[in-house]
Amino acid sequence: MTIFLTTLLLLIPLPLLLLLLRISPTSSTSKSNRIPLPPGSLGIPILGQSLALLRSMRANTAEKWIEDRIRKYGPISKLSLFGRPTVFVYGQAANKVIFGNDGGGALGHQPPQSLKMILGERNMSELSGSDHKRVRKALVSFLKPESLKRYVGKMDAEVRKHIEMHWEGKEKVSVMIKGVWSVPLNLPFTPLNRSLRESARMQSMVKELLLKKKIELEQNGASPHQDLVTYLLSMHHLKDDEEKMMTEEEIVHNVIAIMFAGHDNISVLLTFIIRLLATEPSVYASVLQEQEEIAKGKHAGEPLSWEDLVKMKYTWRVALETLRIVPPIFGGFRKTLKDIEYEGYLIPKGWQIFWVSAMTHMDSSIFPEPSKFDPSRFENQASIPPYCFVSFGGGPRICPGIEFAKYETLVAIHYLVTKFNWKLCADNTFTRDFMPTPNQGLPLQISPRVLS
């Protein structure tokens, strides 16, 4: 072990090594020098508390691990995660600082280094300032509700195709979906190494698709609105508007990021909704009633429309409550762009700030009886204090795909509850690796349902 660590340290660039060895940055002002660092320990070099956090996530005890830190150190403490000195903060006020200061010059986005390695350095989560605004504007213009209306029929067709292939005519189905939160060491046989190999394969596929779509757009006059790749390529060629242009590298990296978020996040949400509906009969009955009313108004084989999705208010509240209790993203990071004073402590420039969504989601002062599943909490979303429900993030970096996730989830749930009955053939335990994953998968005993 000693030889391994010595060899590893020799391979690390000197500036990073100094950071990992916890040589404290010097503040530019005497005032900052007088402000103490938060309590806590940075742990051993490189690893810090990374392995302890990852172990607790996989054991589904991460919330308890965080609560133990809070009891020991209070609402703000220092530690080291994924190779970087870190400050953990929690609560509504902390969330407001984290989400409300993006673009304000004090904080920048700081995903784990492993995520940057997997998705590519030009994906939106890695960009800041004008680059972030430019790329976000391009993606949001495609993902806004007004644009997504034209894709409801395509979503409907894809969901029905999936159900026909994997659900209909079967008695059992098994539904379920690693390296994102990893110590950023690309060693053979590690989850990060496997993820990087898959990332390289995906980038090659997207580049081939990019070339095909470019030919269709330039030679065949394809509609820019037929899909995301074509849309972004069309903006790439708007030479008269530099603000809208995206490089081909940015298109590749952001398409992969959207594929990752659009597939995994929605898969997790649907997985836990299916589990919930199998164990909460009153919730299931209300969802079924809402969806059957919509189905009765459709002709045989007629796809769902935008107007149908607007009617699915209770079903979406069920989805939001599922996201509150089991958020797909456990937490995230921001990077300090300058020295910050918070709660009487100094967070030095270059450190990262760690936030955890469950700390406000499961706070009884914000959500009474937080362990109880209660979709009525979201009947009036304006009554929920700001920066408390953060499954989609918040502020200038709030997830641009909220509406896409909403419509895809609603379409899927509609066909599942109107076409099938199911019984869960596993327990309710799950792990976080890196997203919530049922320990036994999601085996279901299913039978066809006849519309009443």
Task: Please tell me about this protein's structure.
The protein is an alpha+beta fold. The protein has a single domain (22-448), classed as Orthogonal Bundle (Cytochrome p450). The protein is built from 18 helices and 12 strands. Strands 1-2-8-5-3 form a 5-stranded mixed beta sheet. Strands 4-12-9 form a 3-stranded antiparallel beta sheet. A two-stranded antiparallel sheet has the order 6-7. The N and C termini lie far apart (65 Å). This is Taxadiene 5-alpha hydroxylase-like.
In the CATH hierarchy, what is the architecture at level 2? Orthogonal Bundle
Radius of gyration (CA) equals 23 Å
CATH topology: Cytochrome p450
Q: What is the arithmetic mean of pLDDT?
A: 81
The succession of helices and strands, N to C, reads HHHHHEEHEHHHHEHHHHHHEEEEHHEEEE
The percent range for strand residues is 5-15%
- Structural class, by secondary structure, is alpha+beta
CATH superfamily: Cytochrome P450
Q: Share of helix among residues?
A: 40-55%
Enumerate how many helices there are, as a single number.
Answer: 18
Low-confidence runs: 1-28, 176-183
Terminal CA distance reads 65 Å
User: What is the tally of beta strands?
Assistant: 12
Membrane topology: Single-pass membrane protein
Subcellular location: Membrane
Protein name: Taxadiene 5-alpha hydroxylase-like
Family: Belongs to the cytochrome P450 family.
Describe the structure concisely for a colleague.
By secondary structure, the protein is α+β, with helices and mostly antiparallel strands. Helices cover 48% and strands 12% of the residues. Mean pLDDT is 81; it is low at 1-28 and 176-183.
